[in-house]
Amino acid sequence: MDNYPLIFDIQRSSFVDGSGIRTVVFFKGCPLKCDWCHNPESQSFNKEILWYHNLCKNCNECSLVCKYNAIRKGDYEYKIDKTECKVCSECVYVCIHNALRIVGQKYTTESLVGIILKDKIYFDISGGGVTFSGGEPLMFMEFLSVVCKKLKEENLNIAIQTCGYFNFEKFEYYISPYINTIYFDLKIVDDKQHIGHTKKSNTRILENLKKLFSPKQHKIFIRTPLIGNITDTSENLGRIIEIIKNYDCDGYEKLLFNDSYQRKIKALGLDLN
Ligand code: SF4
Ligand code: SF4
Questions:
Q1: Measured between alpha carbons, how far is 145 from 151 in angstroms, rounded to an integer?
Q2: To test ligand 1's pocket by mutation, which of 72, 89, 95 has the most ligand atoms within 8 angstroms of CB?
Q3: Residue 58 sits in which domain range?
């Protein structure tokens, strides 16, 4: 990972993920691999190609320009061999049906700050600001620190959405002084189940949550995505309530399941579970 992380989306004029009108910046790359991730294109730290099969007209133009022979015709549709694809974008340029898209773009700190500040007037009149999301934005703390420092100088409201799996000492040094609000995901309390569904232990996540309240320095909202028979069981939700009772958090939100992940998983060429 170099100093310039990949960003897979920037959504301006958002009314979710914080107060007022917001710009939401989605970083690419996450330490967790949640089975239900509604942004599966955010998990890998690398550039990837998305193929929207519903838009593809099977015209063959993309495979003709691929120098690496990475696009092959299957029984019913074309497929990209990820092991051969160099993510060069040539096929994206020739596809007039917009069936192909590269995800993951680098920005300098200056260019990212410039994009965010374009909407400053709307942030000011609505009580909004910027939200850094992902993926996991706290995987890129040095870069994010420079951006947050510049935005704080402009008096912007800054929120972070985190899966909770991050280096707390680095967070205290690089990020904490500049931000206003944290949206902290608390998904599964049982550690074995957490490992099973996210591929990481929740020990660090629970420790970080405790540290954020010792002492509390930001607005903190705890959130649980409601996933059928995984996070939404009465046992898991009961255990989450027992944990958050210990903390003076500013709100607890249950997030409705977003099933757009199935379409994206297919576009990434991954198998559905
Ligand atoms: S160029 Fe676009 S529409 Fe044509 S086969 Fe390739 S992905 Fe499908
Ligand atoms: S991105 Fe480049 S290497 Fe990958 S399939 Fe398209 S043309 Fe081939």
A1: 10
A2: 95
A3: 48-103
Q: What is the pTM of this model?
A: 0.90
| SS3 of residue 248 by DSSP | coil
142/167 same-domain check: yes
Q: Which of 59, 64, 79, 102 most suits a substitution to test ligand 1, by most atoms within 8 Å of the C-beta?
A: 59
- Cα separation values, 88 from 62, 66, 102, 114, 142, Å: 12, 9, 9, 27, 28
Bridge partner residues of 223 (DSSP): 185, 253
pLDDT in tens, 187-199: 999 999 999 999 9
Residues 36, 78 within the same domain: no
The structural domain count of the chain equals 2
Write the CA distances from 15 to 11, 110, 112, 127, 180, integer angstroms.
10, 25, 20, 11, 17
The reply to whether 238 and 135 lie within a common domain is yes
Question: How do 71-73 and 78-80 pair as beta strands?
Answer: antiparallel
Does 271 reside within a domain? Answer: no
pLDDT of residue 264: 65
Both 130 and 217 in one domain: the answer is: yes
Q: Is pLDDT at 104 greater than 50 in this prediction?
A: yes
Q: Which two tokens stand for residue 176?
A: 């904490």
1: in domain: no
- Same domain (yes/no): 110, 165: yes
At residue 260, the pLDDT reads 63
**Does the residue 135 lie in any domain?**
yes
pLDDT band at 271 (very low <50, low <70, confident <90, very high): very low
59 Cβ inside 6 Å of ligand 1: yes
- Which residue has a Cα nearest atom 2 of ligand 2? 88
Say if residue 140 is in the same domain as residue 52. Answer: no
